[in-house]
Amino acid sequence: KQEVTQIPAALSVPEGENLVLNCSFTDSAIYNLQWFRQDPGKGLTSLLLIQSSQREQTSGRLNASLDKSSGRSTLYIAASQPGDSATYLCAVGLTQGGSEKLVFGKGTKLTVNP
Amino acid sequence: DAGVIQSPRHEVTEMGQEVTLRCKPISGHNSLFWYRQTMMRGLELLIYFNNNVPIDDSGMPEDRFSAKMPNASFSTLKIQPSEPRDSAVYFCASRVDRFFTGANVLTFGAGSRLTVL
Prior knowledge:
The structure holds 2 protein chains of 2 kinds.
Chain A: E1 4-7, E2 10-14, E3 19-25, E4 32-38, E5 44-51, E6 56-59, E7 62-67, E8 72-77, E9 86-96, E10 99-104, E11 108-113
Parallel strand pairs in A: 2-11
Antiparallel strand pairs in A: 1-3, 3-8, 4-5, 4-9, 6-7, 7-8, 9-10, 9-11
Chain B: E1 5-7, E2 10-13, E3 19-24, E4 31-38, E5 42-50, E6 53-56, E7 65-71, E8 74-79, E9 88-95, E10 107-108, E11 112-116
Parallel strand pairs in B: 2-11
Antiparallel strand pairs in B: 1-3, 3-8, 4-5, 4-9, 5-6, 7-8, 9-10, 9-11
């Protein structure tokens, strides 16, 4: 059974700091990996999607990497801002018995202090 | 595009009552997912539909839960009878799955927060 783990569960940093969020998964047979952002009381917003054949994706100050062989992904946030405060979730896409679904980690709650 | 629309946003009910949550996916999306989020268990997939057909309902916790998708623009998740342990935020999400590329982004609704007393 695929398990997705995110460490740390919470992270607090001062504004301007570069930071890395970690995600690990137990089964490397994934077809993609997605990073989402969730603000309190809101739904999830997709940030980056890395297909299984790719190594990384970038969007603005965000960079996500994928190492399938080791079962790891990182989300790098450059020059963090208070507006980046949110919970960040990673999810791996897998096929099981002909169906496709995402399995989520429990997230890392990020606080960027002004 | 109004995004994925869920209703109600908040529901407070008493144990034993029937609860119906509703979802309107993004127009043109042909896959729809129901997730449940709790502090203890995180986000769990309950069921997903492709072209209005249930593909995987292995995450539905028990027979008290049922989901339908009568057409491409509407889905319901029903809990009958509800119990306090069903209290959670229920999310609906949709995406386009006509061609498998591994690049199909899942779009979430704002969620329905259910409290069962």
